[in-house]
Amino acid sequence: MIPAALLSSWLEASLPVPLLAMVCYLAMTGLVLTNLPEHWRELGWANRVTLGRGAIVALLAGTLADPDLLARAAVPLAILALLALLLDGVDGWVARRTSTQSDFGARFDMELDAFFILVLCLALLLLDKAGPWVLAIGAMRYAFVVAGLRLTWLTRPLPESRRRKAVCVWQVAALMIALLPVTGTTAVGWLAGSALAALTWSFFIDIRWLHRHASA
């Protein structure tokens, strides 16, 4: 049912949709291959799973080129986004099972999450379900990276955190629910607002930790 609805929607999509999806995926693949550690002979199964999840995110990003498609296929696209969220835990499980955990894999996973969240925020804006403020959720990670170019102490590695992972999952879940046609404006405001508040709180904790250790 859902695959058929997605296929039907994509067949009716305008040309910019598949083009944008292809550009996003090729850019993603190019960045991965460019930044792959020199001593690696292959990508590894965990990173392949992440790249497969990236293909789903690229498909979702492609729909941003056609707001009408976003509106018509909101439910199938939300389910596709749910699949991408579920796969977010699979790559880590594969890495642990195959003993192939790496800083590269963790960074790849994190940056894909950030792009995924930005795509969902843009979808909400294009559907007029939220105002421009919702982009703050998707832009916060990139603002942090830009700030790190000037404040180098922000680029220090952070310790593992379940809080950070939980906030990421809630952002994606809240934005997916907000995209559903049955979700009204008030509910969208609460969902997206809670995601923004949780993210701001999480970034505040991490920045405070980094600042304290930089001072030390």
What is shown here, in short?
By secondary structure, the chain is mainly α.
Write the H/E string, N to C.
HHHHHHHHH
In terms of DSSP E residues, the strand content is: under 5%
Largest sheet: none
State the helical fraction.
over 70%
Gross morphology: globular
Rounded to the nearest angstrom, the radius of gyration is 18 Å
Q: What is the tally of beta strands? A: 0
Residue ranges: pLDDT <50 for 5 or more in a row?
none
Q: Layout of SSEs?
A:
Elements: H1 2-11, H2 16-34, H3 45-62, H4 67-72, H5 74-97, H6 103-126, H7 135-150, H8 162-179, H9 185-215
Helix pairs in contact: 2-3, 3-5, 3-6, 5-8, 6-7, 6-8, 8-9
What does this structure look like?
There is one protein chain. The chain has 216 residues and is an all-alpha fold. The chain is 77% helix and 0% strand. The protein contains nine helices and no strands. The chain has helices at 2-11, 16-34, 45-62, 67-72, 74-97, 103-126, 135-150, 162-179, 185-215. The chain is globular, with a radius of gyration of 18 Å. The chain starts with a helix and ends with a helix. The model has no long low-confidence stretch (mean pLDDT 87).
